[in-house]
Amino acid sequence: MRGTRAQTNTGRKEGVNLNKQQKQKKETTIDSYYSPNGTEGERSANDKPEIPANWIQAVEELKTQLREAEDNWEKNLKIKISHLETEALELKQENSVLKAKIIQLENEAKEMKDEIKRMKDNLQRNSDQKEKDDQKAKDEIQSLRNRVKQLESSDLTRQQDTIKQNKKNEKIEENVKHLIHKTDDLENRSRRDNLRIIGLPEDHDKRKSLDIILEEIIQENCPEILEQEGKVEIERIHRSPPVFNPQLTTPRNVIAKFKNNQIKEQVLQAAKKKPFRYHGNMVRITQDLSASTLKDRKAWNMIFRKARELGLQPRIKYPSKLTIFLQGKVWSFNTTEEFQAFINKRPD
């Protein structure tokens, strides 16, 4: 702004000088025109035109006005120059103050620059150290991630191996169950010609052979079989287990294998219709089955007795299936769990 003011003042001075020169030139031209010593005054009396008196008076008045205007202009110009000089002095003083302030600001800027440099250096050192720490932390985190990935991968592999092994185990268990079922079925089929005699006292077979005792049991309880078929042929007959245990209070079972399956079935059906006796002792005749099948059938004993008390006509079907007659319908159950779920739904 101060530079602009200085240029403006310089322009004003140049304009004043130019106007002054032009006025002087104009004034000189008029004076020379009417002056007796001028070029025009040197003209011959014959060539000089006649000038009216009022023109001369107007020219004199104009010259007076021009002189007054010039005096006023010079006066105003001096005043303006004085003002400009005053302003220039003030600007010079202000410039000195500004220079002092600039020097002070430069010194402060230098100090700030040095301080900023120190701070920048400290920041750079801290940043470098932080980068090193961050890099170290990143390396440790990456190492941990790699270890976690390895553990997850190994754990996933173990899980997959466990799943595969569980599937294999399940398949093996299914195969084992199937094989056990097939084995039991084969064993039961191998025993299809056998009958099991339960409750026959041990002292009877000391006096007679077991095959004779069996024929007497049939003769005493279902003689019509002997009348129809004649003599019952027994392939073999023995106690089970074969070794007597004196600590047992109940007699060992007798296993008899018939040569004719039809006679065996007739004796079995007769034993289901009525209880058999031998010399006054109650004996029970059942189908000879494998140990596992007998165990499964034994699980139904309590339920079987309760169902018989309720008149549900319970039956044990091959190999170990319970059937009951309820509300005009036959219900069958493969396991005790199925029967328990059934009675929970049907509390009646």
TrEMBL record:
PANTHER family: L1 TRANSPOSABLE ELEMENT-RELATED (PTHR11505). Residues 1-10, 151-163 have a biased composition (Polar residues). GO terms for molecular function: single-stranded RNA binding. Residues 40-50, 118-142 have a biased composition (Basic and acidic residues). One of its GO terms (cellular component) is ribonucleoprotein complex. Pfam families: Tnp_22_dsRBD (PF17490), Transposase_22 (PF02994). Residues 1-51, 118-170 are annotated as: Disordered. One of its GO terms (biological process) is retrotransposition. It comes from the Eukaryota. The lineage of its organism: Eukaryota, Metazoa, Chordata, Craniata, Vertebrata. It comes from Monodelphis domestica. Residues 291-347 form the L1 transposable element dsRBD-like domain. Signal peptide: none annotated. This is L1 transposable element RRM domain-containing protein. Gene3D superfamilies: L1 transposable element, C-terminal domain, L1 transposable element, RRM domain. Residues 192-288 form the L1 transposable element RRM domain.
